[in-house]
Amino acid sequence: MSTKTELVAxxxxxxxxxxxxxxxxxxxxxxxxxxLLADVFSLYLKTKNFHWHMSGLHFRDYHLLxxxxxxxxxxxxxxxxxxxRKIGGTTLRSIGHIARLQRIxxxxxxxxTPQDMLSELHDNEKALVLSMRAVHSxxxxxxxxxxxxxxxxxxxxxxxxxxxxxxxxxx
Length: 171
What we know:
The protein is mostly helical. It has helices at 4-12, 23-52, 59-86, 95-101, 114-142, 145-169. The longest helix is centred in the first third of the chain and has 30 residues, at 23-52. The radius of gyration is 19 Å and the shape is elongated. The mean pLDDT is 94.
């Protein structure tokens, strides 16, 4: 049972979310999740960039495909950030924070061919899967089954997007 002093201290402790996961694992997992979150935001914006700037013969199909992929990516962000908080960490705070952590490179080119857009996104989705698997390994080591389970679903979704992009680029 907590004393009144402990309760007052806990109330005033900034973002001190209790966790049953070892503090070092919390640090490692939240670091990995925050890097993933930065990558997902980066890939979301790149996907929307390509969606907005799509052109050519298959415009409608590609435009709609990338809109759907963007929606899927954005839907991941809140779950990732909230998972960080649930296990006792803190998460991204700004565009600058995302820029410092992201591993998915931006594409600021004035013009990118539709084929190059789809190929680049395919490569980025494959890289995202590898990053998710690395964080999943940390979760396994920590016994963090909830985060591992979340990542398993995201890995499946990401592999599906990569598959669609690959098949779309086949002539």
